[in-house]
Specification:
Rossmann fold, alpha/beta
Length: 165
């Protein structure tokens, strides 16, 4: 990696990775040379979510297989530690609502306090995806609804649902 390369970490639980997340990622790729989609999870947290972290990584890899300069990983440490590991100076956060901004700005300020070299870049989801949340998509999945509407078209979500049944 050349020193002038702008690398960003796009962290989240991504449970699951929706078309809204994909939209934010595509926008981030216009700003950065490389974006690392990082599935964060707390191994001590009770309940691991709808999809296990390794399945989340597989879903994201399927979603981004045609994109260049995207890497996918999982991590359990602080996001700023992951940024240091990859030499990233930027964190990408997607926003759907003003409530998202209020929550994310507090985290951004804490990250900046812990590492003054980091800059958080907020990217609003495109209007057509701003209503999609992982919580809503999980609810559709749990109740056997057609969740394919909420995923990037290249993701065969039925294949991943079978993995957890």
């Amino acid at each position: 990696m050349k020193p002038s390369m702008k690398t960003a970490i796009f962290p989240g639980s991504f449970d699951p990775f929706t078309i809204g997340h994909y939209d934010v990622l595509v926008q981030a790729l216009k700003l950065f040379d490389k974006v690392i989609v990082a599935v964060g999870y707390n191994s001590t947290k009770k309940g691991q979510g709808y999809f296990c972290p390794s399945t989340r990584v597989k879903i994201i890899k399927e979603a981004v297989k045609e994109l260049e300069n995207v890497e996918v990983c999982s991590y359990t440490d602080l996001t700023i530690s992951l940024c240091r590991q990859y030499g990233a100076k930027f964190i990408v956060r997607g926003l759907r609502t003003t409530t998202d901004f209020e929550f994310e700005s507090v985290i951004a300020q804490a990250n900046k306090k812990m590492d003054g070299e980091l800059t958080t870049v907020f990217i609003p989801a495109s209007q057509e995806y701003s209503y999609i949340s992982s919580t809503v998509v999980r609810d559709v999945l749990i109740h056997n609804g057609d969740a394919s509407l909420f995923f990037p078209p290249q993701v065969d979500i039925k294949k991943f649902i079978k993995e957890i049944e």
